[in-house]
Design a protein that fits this description.
Blueprint: E1 6-10, H1 14-17, E2 18-19, E3 22-23, H2 27-43, E4 48-53, E5 78-82, H3 93-99, E6 104-110, H4 112-125, E7 129-132, E8 137-138, H5 147-158, E9 164-165
Parallel strand pairs: 1-4, 1-6, 4-5, 6-7, 6-8, 7-9
Antiparallel strand pairs: 2-3
Length: about 170
Amino acid sequence: METADVLVIIDMQKGICHYEDQTIADFNTIVSGINARIDAYTQSSKPVIFVRHTDEYLIKDSDKWQIISELKKTQAHYVIDKKHPNAFYKTELKYTLNKLNAKSIEICGAETQYCVDATLKFAHGLEYTILMTKGLHTSWDNEWMTAAETRAFYETIWENSFVTFN
């Protein structure tokens, strides 16, 4: 599988992936897939960036705010904190990507229709080439669509307009 210059993993935090006694859709598959991508970037000596959301629910330094333990966090080169769905908004992400001379980024994580969508569309507007592995983003079922339908819907929007899929 192809790799970009940098892997960006969005909001794979305890409070996003787990709620009460429920787990976000396809959790084990997503974690396994993201860990495989982390391995690919590590083997290629390419950077991995974890992005964490902070708000009134995901309070900085709280347990919910932490990146899930199932991911290979020790491979992270950078951790970027954000307070907005768009990971570029008032963060160090663009500065970090510039410092790394990144022209292409691979995005994965949660939640599809919020932070993943906002970040990848903004990245596209900044003229980054965006790579994704199909299905390596997730969400919760909602009143309109299941998480699987949400993923498929957004992949249809993104493909050929914003993203190149592996």
